[in-house]
Amino acid sequence: MTDLIERPVSTSDGDNVDHGTETSHHHDHHGPTGIMKWLTSTDHKVIGLSYTVTSLIMMIIGGAFAEIIRAQLVSPTSNLVSFSQYNELFTMHGSVMIYLFVGPFAFAGLANYLIPIQIGAPDMAFPRLNAFSYWLYLTGSITMLSGFLVGGGAANFGWVGYAPLSSAANSPGTGADLWICALLLTGFSAIFSGVNLVATIFYLRAPGMTLFRMPIFTWNMLVTGILILLAFPVLTAGLIMLYCDRHFGTHIYTVQGGGVPLLWQHIFWFWGHPEVYILALPFFGIVTEIFPVFSKKPVFGYRGMVFATLTIAALSLGVWAHHMFTTGAVLLPFFSIMSLLIAVPTGIKMFNWIGTMWGGKVHYSTAMLMSMGFLFTFLIGGITGIFLASPPLDFFTHDTYYVVAHFHSVVMALVMGALAGIYFWAPKMTGHMMHEGIGKIQFWFLFIGTQLFTFPLYLVGLHGMPRRMANYPINPSWQTLNEWGSVGAILIGISMVLFLVNVIYSWKKPVVAGDNPWDGHTLEWFTTSPPPSHNFLSLPPIHSERPTWDYNHPDHLAIEHNHKKQAKKSAKASAASDAS
Amino acid sequence: MEETLSQLESAQESVADRSPRTKKRALALAIAAPLLLGGCELPSFGAFHGVTKTANSTFKLWQGFNVTAIVVGGITLLAMIWAIFAYRAKDKTSIPKQTQYHIPLELTYTIIPIFIVIGLFAATVVVENQVVDEPAPNATINVTAFQWGWKFTYPGHKAVVVGQTTQSPIMVMPENKNVLINLRSTDVIHGFYVPEFNFSRYAQPGLLNTFTFNANKTGMFDAQCTQLCGLYHTLMYFRVNVVSQAKFDAWLRAKDASTTQQEVIDANSAIALENNAGVAVNPTKSNGDGAN
Ligand code: HEM
Ligand SMILES: [Cu+2]
Ligand SMILES: [Cu+2]
């Protein structure tokens, strides 16, 4: 930190040649290389990449489970997998995707890599804790998946592990214990990531980087970090109690011993709903970085965007029981209005994203297509979610495929956001471009596949098909819709194969990216690709949330309030401080 | 908007006094008022029209939400498509006007949704109060869920209906009567879901859940457990048979007569045994699943 403040803030042009030589210089002198570097590194960029790659592997594993699930469901009486295997598959699919892919990818992978760079810091606040956090995550992931190797199989009580199905009597297997331990490990990993994010963003910002000049991605990660700190400890406590019930004779969640099974649902969802936004906010952040760059405009309604993020986070702490409407044991109107209200700030974000493109010069890069795909898919997922906030409508859709379709519209939008982020930042992380042509084909498979997969599931849910069904022998009329859903899943699978092809292709035939291939706005585009250790040799002056853009386009500063005089004033002000 | 709200409030009051006609009118008003569309014939948007009184109002609420969603979502979608296609860059380098804020516009799309949300909430509360309402029952059925089947008993009667998995036990109930359901579980959480009643509720150990159905159509309706409850969750079926009051009485009398004391004991102990030992009572299998 002191290092950062003492470093002169250069206003000379960021000389590329200099950067290049400096980078190799650093590499020569800095400790181990190769596998040892990976094992011992506390560099946020190495850890960020480890997280990103590991979580993408988890996505592929979770996706493979999903493909088996969809294969099972093409026929009403298929026995590709047995009932117990089916229960394991959807439990592990949901668990791997939620606990091991989406969260770690966003709040630990991309965030780790980008946050210090976006705020002009040399590293995260606690580099060793950061490394520890990754190793906990990797250990947790392996622990969860190893459930398949033990007698009795992996956990099979759904990703929500409802009591008392998750009790020792009802789920005696070791797989269940491994699932609990995995969640404890990855939960602590998340908590440490949260601590690191919040501390880094509050204390390591470069001079001039005020809170309201932070990129929206950084803002969202700050709020995500705070939500992690509020929510995850509750889950951890709940899991420890569950473990005690299973092994140490307590009766916290069992009726027989005077416990209350419903308590688990309260604890789980008190974590679970904020978790929904812990998962979503980072991806909102990703697309909020991408829309402006490929529209060549500042993000529309920057302050409104921040306000919306804060409102969503605040409301998300008071809506958990909308997952429990059908228990008959929660106050319906309160949780209903709180949940409905989340639509308002979410709508603000939606309109701000549209407003960012409006009047811009929209470039259809792969990252931008993925972001547009996110926008559409998230609109569908968001709107169908509003229905579920109304208890009478939730009563007849709860635990049906309607809900499965709703949250897959949302999570598939997040997957598009993830890929948008990869296509956008891979050049920065690797120094090489991803192939745009393959990327666009991948996008179309993913986009069409997602809609083909979710739309029939909404309908089959409304026709009464419950989720977590291995078979549907008495309702063969559900078959056609299920077949379409599976076709969609195949297209999504193909798109993931294309992604791997693209990764390999871009690796084998490298195209040098340069420092700023997209004419980016934020500080990461001011340094080299990949950045040197400790990230910057010089920083531009920071007068807005777009320091790199302001530096490259001093005649095109953001116009506040759509007002000409204002624009001139701010241009003058920044010119003055440039000179000083 | 304020006017609409006060209308809704009065609507709610008249629901409370339970006169069926005002109730119906109030409901229609409540849904029509915020959406201005209650009167016309709307499509089903994929859902069941419902065969109970509350299922019908839930269905109307569903339609109302859909209309709102299509209007709001449609406008958003058009704006989105316009922004994507109309502003496509023609060259690589030109830079548009760097607009960042438009406060009146931003306020508009903050405030209008708040009013829409209030409207949706008001309609929700009206229907919800009706759905969770518990009028004086004309008949009562005790429903007990267990791994992996259902037991239906009729308080004051000997009749027992019990069945597992694809035996698909049948819950018989009279038409046009307030039928009170007492829902319990003996082991894990189950989901009591009758699609055409537009309703589901968890059956939970240690908790009694009560609700009322007033079916307005006779017939046999498929139903099944919706909350994951272990190995044979997939096959935890039941059916609901809605019959006229006369037929119901006749059925109950016959069932009382044919149910032996032994059957009552068996039904109870089968569940109890299953519950205590954690051993499945041979579920009827409909597929070649090897697991047990
Ligand atoms: C290839 C893409 C995907 C396909 C085809 C797919 C398919 C499915 C299906 C069919 C189910 C329902 C299983 C059942 O109820 O019987 C399901 C459940 C689930 N999926 Fe996915 N999914 C995909 C991607 C994702 C992603 C990206 C996430 C999260 C980030 C996710 C999270 C979940 C969760 C949490 C469940 C619930 C599991 C449970 O019921 O316990 N899925 N998925
Ligand atoms: Cu929630
Ligand atoms: Cu079940």
From TrEMBL, chain A:
TM segments?
46-69, 89-115, 135-159, 179-204, 216-243, 306-325, 331-355, 367-389, 401-424, 444-464, 484-505
Please report the record's description of how this protein sits within the membrane.
Answer: Multi-pass membrane protein
Biased composition regions of type Basic and acidic residues, renumbered to the chain: 16-25
A Pfam family recorded for this sequence: COX1
Example GO molecular function: cytochrome-c oxidase activity
Limits of the Cytochrome oxidase subunit I profile domain: 38-543
Keywords of this protein's UniProt record, alphabetized? Membrane, Transmembrane, Transmembrane helix
* CC annotations in GO: membrane
Query: Please, one GO biological process term?
Result: aerobic respiration
Residue ranges of region Disordered?
1-31
Coiled-coil intervals: none
* Location(s), subcellular: Membrane
Tell me yes or no: is ATP-binding among this UniProt entry's keywords.
no
- Kindly indicate whether the keyword Transmembrane belongs to this entry: yes
The identity of this protein, by name, is Unannotated protein
UniProtKB/TrEMBL annotation, chain B:
* Pfam families given in the database record: COX2
Q: Which UniProt keywords apply?
A: Copper, Electron transport, Membrane, Metal-binding, Respiratory chain, Translocase, Transmembrane, Transmembrane helix, Transport
Task: Say yes or no: keyword Membrane present.
Answer: yes
Report the InterPro entries cross-referenced here.
CcO_II, CcO_II-like_C, Copper_CuA, Cupredoxin, Cyt_c_oxidase_su2, Cyt_c_oxidase_su2_TM_sf
Keyword match S-adenosyl-L-methionine: no
Q: Transmembrane segments in this chain: where?
A: 26-45, 65-87, 107-127
Extract the SUPFAM superfamilies matched here: Cupredoxins, Cytochrome c oxidase subunit II-like, transmembrane region
Where is it mainly found? membrane
Which part of the chain is the Cytochrome oxidase subunit II copper A binding domain?
Answer: 136-254
**Which locations, inside or outside the cell, does it occupy?**
Membrane
E.C. code: 7.1.1.9
One MF term from GO for this chain?
Answer: oxidoreductase activity
Gene Ontology BP terms: ATP synthesis coupled electron transport
For membrane topology, the record states: Multi-pass membrane protein
Q: Name one GO cellular component term.
A: membrane
Q: Top-level EC class, please?
A: translocase
Family recorded in the similarity comment: Belongs to the cytochrome c oxidase subunit 2 family.
Q: Which NCBIfam families match?
A: CoxB
Name assigned to this protein: cytochrome-c oxidase
